[in-house]
Design goal:
Chain A has eleven helices and twelve strands. By secondary structure, chain A is α/β, with parallel strands linked by helices. Chain B is an all-alpha fold. Chain B is built from 13 helices and no strands. The chains are: A alpha/beta, B mainly alpha.
Amino acid sequence: MNAAQSPSIAGQARPAGAVSAHQTPDPAKPARVPLLDVRDLHLQFQTRTGVARVLDGVSLHVDRGETLGIVGESGSGKSVLFLALLGILEANARVTAGSASFGGFDLLGSSEAERSSVRGRELAMVFQNPRAALNPIRRVGHQIEDVLLRHTATPRHALQARAIDALRRVQIADPEARYHAYPFELSGGQCQRVMIAMALACEPALLIADEPTTGLDVTTQAAIMALIARIARESGMATILVTHDLGLAGAHCDRIAVMHAGHLVETAPAAELFARPRHPYTARLLASTPYGARSIESLVSVPGQLPDLTRTDLSPCRFSERCDRVLPACAGALVTRDMGEGHHVACHNPC
Amino acid sequence: MNAQRLLAARAGVAFVLRRLAAALPNLLGVVIVTFLLTRALPGDPAAYFAGPAASREAIEEVRHALGLDRGLATQFGLYLRDLAQGDLGNSISTGRPVATELVERLPASLELTLVALVLATLIAVPLGVLAATRPGSMVDHLCRVIATAGVSLPTFFTGLLLAYVFYFLLGWAPPPTGRLDPAFSPPQAVTGFYLIDALLDADAELLAAVAGQIALPAITLALFVIAPISRMTRASMLGVLSSDFVRTARAVGLSRARVLYVYALRNALLPVVTTLGMVFSFLLGSSILVEKVFAWPGVGSYALEALVASDYAPVQGFVLVLAALYVLLNLVIDLAYGVVDPRARFEA
């Protein structure tokens, strides 16, 4: 299948640098139609010990050009959410309810052929541990060409030049030589740049960066984050930064969504979230995160641990067992309240 | 670029030479052990060759003629001196030089073993891939059953069973009596492999006859090693399919076929290549019995007959040739590994 036959995402026709122009006919009004709109997503894993309800009614949206941070502990379901949206989860995972629209394309209801033509072209993802995420016995240039071959009509003789351009775009030194390198010949940071080059080769409308700096040293982390931010700004690409690091999300994201045990517990503009966390879990997370002028001594860990999601007696609020603000009402159905200013919280007794 | 190639080629040659040199102590060990083992075997070659009616003096005379009355150390020294000159001694039963006989018979054994190896790989690798991509399915169970049956039945039994069914009952296979029906004359010896030589002669009838003869013994041997190859392929493929880079390949939208064959399979074959080396040595060992069952004129049946006759030189020669083959094969596998896996290329 070539690009011309592929299902079209609205962003495909966008002129470079003017991403949301055709989405917002009236410049005074903000875009009403988000780029990614996930509603009430439920997902479960069939495991040896039973059914784990890993995502339980997750709704979120991302606008064009926006940077959204998804923050949560390991096991909160943040990576699973996006693997599910891409449709690349293991066979034992099943989406049981919900919808996801990406620029008008139905991510969950479309055929595998249609979905795979969107993956890597309009909707791209980079992962943590970049060295393992690249094919160890294939030259990195060829891995980028694989993506170009799949999604674009680039003639064969122009492939190498385009792959080298992709490497140059992620600021790899001496891209002509690196084109021939195998992943084991590159540093972790260079491998992550290659991953980003692969993900961005087809100029996607949305990049999902899943812990992109985990496993890299601190200076490389900063360089990688700056690179993603710069490319997103230049091309008007929306970015979702999935991380366990609230500080990192705060530094790079417009909005932050906090996940806990398969629930999205709080969403707010980054500054607002840091200034006025409303969900007890977010407040606890902030108290455990070193940022700003906080001293190490003042850090407090979040009590308890994530509940076992295979349990059938889970309370509607999955944080209630770890919460010190629990009310009798917390046993009732979980509702997400609009606190104004784009601040939403799923709590009966917000801070 | 050219200078780089030249350097790489030079490094390659140095690698091969180093490996061959490193194999010499192993071969010396093999020489010592087989020399001692053959001497420790029950049976007195002098008595055997003097005949049942021979007198004590006649036996002693034969013993002296064979040089067996000298001390072990002296015998070993003489053996080493001959070896250094490429002389493997003479067979007492046939009276001909062992080296000549081994060279005549080796192609038959190699052809049989290699055909079995290729056959087993062609069956086992797809079977393992199918089993890995559909774990718990019918194919997976079938793979397990074939593998278990193949490895648990002794080769001589499978051989006899196949010969009984396909020659005796069904009449599909030619009689299990060697490499070629006596009605044909063998192809012009170029490689010594009848299949290739018949192909070079462009003689379809001869090729069919040769293929018919080799089919049953090769299948017998192949059945025995399908198990390790397919199980290894399955395990390795399962591991690779759940790896991060396969997830990446799927995340960028590559087609299922490309993910499976270009990304997963090529990586999964690395441990399989290593397994093939081990499997080849199983095959060389088990071909002895299969050659006997199918009257295959290879080195295995030659060694077996010599062993029964307490004829030392052919047994020693056979084991030495096997060891040398094993060393060479492992070298070839390491070189092949370097071609497939860039990470293995510069470590030596």
